[in-house]
Amino acid sequence: MFEARLVQSAILKKVLEAIKDLLTEATFDCSDSGIQLQAMDNAHVSLVSLNLRSDGFDKYRCDRNLSMGMNLGNMTKIMKCAGAEDTVTMKAQDNADVVAFMFESKNQEKVSDYEMKLMNLDQEHLGIPETDYSCIVKMPSQEFARICRDLSQFGESMAISCTKEGVKFSSAGDIGSANIKLAQTANVDAEEEAVVIEMQEPVSLTFACRYLNSFTKATPLSAQVQLSMSADVPLVVEYKIGELGHIRYYLAPKIED
Amino acid sequence: NRKQASLLNFFKKP
User: Is A48 strand, coil or helix?
Assistant: First the structure.
């Protein structure tokens, strides 16, 4: 028996919005410790790694490990049926071929039950090596989304260069070029408005804008985003999901031909 | 010119 309850169904809606651009289907691996998902996009350029800890749920029970393959378009259809203020409960029996979603309004005046067929998906979990990143940048997630959107107008790819002075985003193409520099913030009232750079060595890497823009669909989940970079390895873009967990995106760099 | 690398160049297959 598996059962996971979230008082705020909006969190699950946002998680789904954050992954469905990159993935059409994915397996949710449920265990005693929580729900995990790891999947690459079709082109094997980016990877989504979602971790929702069991203790972050309002109720969580998982007697036996369970892998639930879901079509994310269909899951989105069902989650759209939940009101923003509804509580959501996901349930599945052991070895089930369906997952149930129950939405309850405040005061339980309205209770909706949906069942979705599960799929058997080929799972290939990649081994992601432990990496000490040369640069870690923490910045407001809305600022990052804005920069990715703005620079996408100039070219298909953008360079991210980090030194201890700051982080520079740049792009160039037919219409011209763009450069955005962000300095580390000296004093900020709100922690989520800060730009913080931890640098061991300067790094400059180039990435496809299209994927970065897809990652920014996670912006509503967190006020801050963390970018981790080292020379010649994939970028990690991480959004915390409150006390529940995190979503991490890995993106392979563009390399010299 | 740069080409897009694959994640499979960096991460181990199971």
Answer: strand
